[in-house]
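Milestone 3.1: sequence recovery, worked example.
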């Protein structure tokens, strides 16, 4: 999905300085950057590409309770 919330079936993602720089159709991005000049090209045909999502919402108590359900010995 791009900024206009289009679901792109034949899409490309341009990464610059370790960040998503642009998302568009493969044709749109090939017009901007020739494949030969890219440092790395990953063929993700038939795959879904998602950015790494970080859950920055937390409460202090989560750290105290996160291992309670591990099933360890209770001696």
């Amino acid at each position: 999905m791009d900024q206009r919330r289009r679901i792109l079936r034949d899409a490309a993602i341009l990464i610059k300085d370790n960040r998503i720089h642009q998302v568009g159709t493969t044709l749109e991005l090939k017009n901007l950057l020739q494949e030969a000049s890219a440092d790395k090209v990953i063929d993700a045909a038939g795959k879904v590409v998602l950015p790494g999502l970080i859950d920055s919402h937390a409460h202090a108590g989560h750290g105290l309770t996160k291992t309670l359900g591990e099933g360890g010995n209770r001696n």
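The longest strand covers residues 19-25. The chain has a mean pLDDT of 75.
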